[in-house]
Inverse folding.
């Protein structure tokens, strides 16, 4: 995999990413002229400045997750709900991508078990992948911001959660390698992701198939076999499982601690099978078996104290962000329906029983969103966020699910049939309470 | 830049308010719960302290200084509304009834701050003002109030009955809502400042209540009570296009304050229950999925999650007010979420703690009684849901009733 990209000047790579975005016919078709050109301007100002200090910036990026490691991004000591200009532009871009690409293709992607290659290419052309890769490696990420990642996940999931999860699987591994990969791992696995053709896809596999699974009690294990590390175990609900070029697998290390290991899909001893579930059917959920798979010498990510907890928390927060987006989709879809649907001579929204469901959708969606953004901003600031993530996840598990359930209820029989997307959102939102890994902020 | 942490600059005010809650309110909390209608004399000293805080910092912890900020400059502001919310949270972590009894911090003061003109602000400065809206036949439906105000020369003559006036006995004056012309609906309803010594104003009785017993709840009769025309707050014009206008806008500022009360009480219940559960061997592990631990720990985590949502919704509403953004929707959202979270959490905490929670040796049962009013006054849960639903659905009050 190391040979797939030729060495290029970092600024050249950055220019290439931006040019590809700006020149894309999609940019014009999706009316992204405004956000796109603004994004490029900000890239030209902020991004290229950062490239010159590549070495230092790299170190800073590696440090964002841990409060005990060196410098953190500057923190503004004001309570503020205003996204930065760049975040606003990215959010608007993703909103358009969700509305124009994801929502119209949700049904087809669900049936196919994956978004179409065209859709995937288009989304990545518009920056979904590039924004998870540092500019120094040819991506478009000017600063490592879990808040920005949360906004991306939220807005994509407003289009469709299954497709969003599928699209974000590889970028999430890119974020993981950005934060924890050593130079050799980044060179081999992260840099090739920016290639125009044959870019590798990847998936972060944590979940295992048993009730009461917890990421700290891993059945998947790595053992030392002479000079070789060997991996055995089964991962469940692996996103894009059958078409990933490599996985990052959570497994118990020979020393007994939870660790993360890069595993190439082509290695002997790996079996993949489809594992269709209640929802997220566009995400290609799979069961992946590892039978004494020999790992590369540098397969293990170098995790420090608390890093694994932080990665698990980041993934849970990402699922919360997805839940915010899909819950927003339910709310937005129910409002016009409740206003148009007539019963007993007036719109059903004139009845408190229906109107109060809508009110509660709004209240609980906003509460979940604020709790999720708080968790993300704490991750960004290097603060301990385990508690905040758990609170947001608890809200997602209960209230986002209730929103989806009420969404089907408001549509009644229409909600139960596949003519409307509310039944899909109901199936998808159940996942947010139980999924581990796969997506990251 | 998105940041949802509480800024350091609020640390001193939070600390002060917390100390009042911990060292003054908590020790006398049960005393005044039992001795209903007895004036908590300890609070007189507190009033001077709060005055001192207001004078020195310009921003106190109570509701007295609220004003919708014009938001002139372009920078983000964390101002009086956020200060009030954070301070009130700590005070009510101590005791809601006592927080409502702090002199000169009444909701009537908030109404004055919101709608009074410069001359009135000056004239009413330093008064403790209670809010008198509810009548025996009109609670949530405040447009249906029957109290009347009739112009007579330089005065207005007020007649009617007012109930559920928080701090009515101890306050110096009331803000009385009365109609200039009942045929003209909401637009004719105006707020009048009525000093307690005005002839014709009679305190009829004090209520015996489920909770917040430290706070007096008074009923008044107004019989040809004469007040000078300058005591009308806001404009005397009946502008039917504006409806309630300024008076109702008071609520956009005060609802987050009442939500903050609920946020404070909820946190008190969660903290105390966590301590009691720990004594029973139940601990909370935020790393593990909540369904894996003890059911009591899972329940408490759900309460804490709802509290976090309520808290952040409340801070958002205050932040919007500080930055000059209209926040009627968000104010109702936070009030609805915080009110029900306080009730649900406090009741759950009593259940989780069993006989320890139900008995009077701990304060949890008291908080469960105090909590209920927080989902009723300043707009019930149902009124908040109506406001939120109308906004989200784009409906008028005649369409969605």
């Amino acid at each position: 995999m190391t040979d797939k990209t030729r060495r290029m000047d970092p600024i050249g790579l950055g220019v290439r990413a931006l040019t590809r975005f700006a020149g894309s016919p999609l940019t014009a078709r999706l009316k992204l002229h405004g956000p796109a050109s603004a994004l490029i301007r900000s890239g030209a100002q902020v991004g290229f400045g950062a490239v010159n200090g590549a070495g230092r910036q790299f170190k800073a990026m590696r440090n964002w997750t841990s409060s005990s490691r060196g410098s953190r991004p500057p923190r503004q000591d004001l309570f503020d709900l205003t996204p930065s200009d760049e975040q606003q532009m990215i959010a608007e871009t993703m909103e358009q991508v969700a509305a124009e690409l994801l929502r119209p293709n949700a049904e087809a992607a669900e049936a196919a078990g994956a978004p179409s290659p065209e859709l995937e290419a288009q989304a990545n052309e518009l920056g979904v992948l590039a924004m998870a890769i540092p500019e120094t490696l040819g991506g478009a990420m000017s600063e490592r911001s879990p808040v920005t990642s949360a906004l991306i996940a939220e807005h994509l999931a407003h289009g469709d959660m299954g497709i969003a999860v599928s699209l974000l699987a590889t970028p999430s591994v890119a974020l993981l390698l950005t934060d924890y990969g050593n130079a050799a791992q980044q060179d081999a696995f992260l840099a090739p992701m920016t290639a125009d053709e044959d870019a590798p896809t990847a998936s972060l596999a944590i979940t295992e198939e048993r009730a009461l699974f917890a990421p700290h009690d891993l059945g998947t294990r790595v053992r030392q076999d002479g000079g070789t590390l060997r991996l055995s175990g089964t991962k469940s609900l692996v996103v894009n499982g059958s078409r990933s070029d490599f996985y990052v697998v959570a497994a118990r290390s020979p020393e007994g601690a939870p660790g993360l290991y890069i595993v190439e899909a082509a290695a002997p001893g790996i079996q993949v099978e489809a594992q269709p579930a209640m929802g997220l059917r566009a995400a290609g959920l799979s069961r992946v078996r590892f039978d004494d798979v020999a790992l590369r010498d540098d397969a293990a990510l170098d995790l420090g104290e608390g890093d694994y907890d932080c990665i698990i928390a980041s993934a849970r927060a990402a699922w919360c962000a997805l839940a915010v987006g899909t819950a927003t989709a339910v709310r937005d879809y129910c409002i016009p329906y409740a206003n148009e649907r007539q019963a007993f001579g007036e719109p059903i929204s004139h009845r408190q029983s229906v109107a109060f469901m809508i009110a509660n959708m709004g209240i609980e969606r906003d509460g979940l969103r604020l709790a999720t953004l708080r968790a993300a901003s704490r991750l960004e600031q290097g603060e301990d966020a385990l508690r905040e993530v758990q609170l947001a996840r608890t809200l997602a598990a209960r209230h986002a699910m209730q929103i989806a359930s009420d969404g089907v209820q408001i549509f009644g029989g229409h909600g139960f049939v596949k003519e409307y997307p509310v039944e899909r959102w109901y199936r998808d939102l159940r996942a947010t309470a139980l999924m581990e890994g796969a997506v990251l902020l | 830049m998105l940041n949802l942490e509480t800024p350091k600059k609020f640390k001193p005010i939070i600390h002060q308010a917390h100390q009042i809650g911990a060292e003054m309110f908590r020790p006398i909390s049960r005393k005044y719960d039992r001795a209903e209608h007895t004036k908590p004399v300890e609070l007189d000293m507190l009033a001077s302290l709060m005055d001192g805080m207001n004078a020195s910092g310009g921003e106190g912890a109570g509701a007295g200084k609220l004003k919708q900020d014009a938001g002139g400059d372009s920078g983000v502001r964390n101002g009086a509304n956020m200060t009030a919310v954070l301070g009130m949270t700590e005070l009510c972590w101590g005791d809601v009834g006592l927080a409502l009894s702090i002199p000169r911090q009444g909701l009537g003061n908030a109404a004055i701050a919101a709608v009074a003109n410069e001359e009135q602000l000056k004239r009413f400065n330093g008064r403790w003002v209670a809010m008198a809206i509810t009548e025996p036949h009109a609670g949530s439906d405040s447009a249906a109030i029957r109290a009347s105000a009739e112009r007579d020369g330089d005065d207005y003559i007020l007649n009617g009955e007012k109930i559920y006036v928080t701090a009515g006995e101890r306050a110096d004056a009331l803000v009385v809502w009365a109609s200039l012309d009942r045929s003209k609906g909401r637009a004719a309803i105006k707020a009048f400042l009525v000093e307690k010594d005005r002839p014709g104003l009679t305190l009829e009785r004090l209520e015996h209540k489920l909770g917040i017993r430290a706070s007096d709840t008074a009923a008044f009769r107004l019989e040809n009570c004469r007040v000078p025309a300058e005591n009308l707050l806001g404009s005397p014009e009946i502008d039917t296009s504006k409806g309630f206008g300024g008076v109702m806008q008071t609520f956009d500022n005060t609802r987050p304050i009442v939500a903050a009360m609920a946020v404070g009480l909820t946190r008190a219940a969660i903290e105390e229950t966590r301590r009691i559960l720990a004594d029973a061997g139940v601990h909370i592990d935020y790393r593990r999925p909540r369904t894996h631990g003890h059911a009591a720990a899972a329940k408490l985590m759900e309460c804490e999650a709802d509290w976090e949502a309520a808290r952040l919704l409340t801070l958002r509403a205050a932040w919007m007010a500080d930055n000059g953004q209209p926040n009627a929707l968000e104010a109702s959202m936070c009030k609805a979420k915080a009110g029900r979270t306080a009730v649900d959490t406090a009741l759950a905490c009593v259940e989780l703690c069993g006989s320890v929670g139900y008995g009077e040796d701990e304060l949890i049962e008291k908080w469960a009684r105090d909590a209920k009013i927080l989902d009723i006054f300043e707009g019930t849960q149902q009124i908040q849901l109506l406001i939120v639903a109308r906004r989200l659905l784009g409906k008028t009050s005649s369409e969605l009733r």
Q: What stands out?
A: The beta strands of chain A are 202-205, 221-225, 228-238, 246-252, 258-264, 270-274, 286-294, 342-343, 346-347.
